[in-house]
Amino acid sequence: MYIVHSTFNVPPEKADEVISIYQKRSGLVDQAEGFQRFLLLQNEKKSGEITVHMEWDTKKHFMTWVQGEDFKRIHELEKKYPDQGLAAIVPSIDKFKVVAY
């Protein structure tokens, strides 16, 4: 299994807005080969810290998704988001290979 975390910090007063966006996400990734699960995580102590957690069968499956057209299409939508301050936030990406269950 391969896990990817994309963590970003938004102003705490914008956290609910960002969460709402993800609750309405397209779900395109759910159809990607090797995709297992998506979770949106909010830090309990820092409400503006949001993490996208994605689980994949393998690193290769994740990389295929990132290089695909659906990934590009989803991320192009960010350029049209009304709050360009939020759209401009660059996440911190962490990738993990699961080595034990």
UniProtKB/TrEMBL annotation:
> What sequence ranges are listed for the domain ABM?
2-90
State the source organism's domain of life. Bacteria
Does Nucleotide-binding appear among the keywords? no
What is the official name of this protein in its record?
A: Antibiotic biosynthesis monooxygenase
Q: Which organism is it from?
A: Rossellomorea marisflavi
Q: Which PROSITE patterns match?
A: ABM (PS51725)
Q: Which UniProt keywords apply?
A: Monooxygenase, Oxidoreductase
User: GO molecular function terms here?
Assistant: monooxygenase activity
Q: Which sequence ranges are marked TM in the entry?
A: none
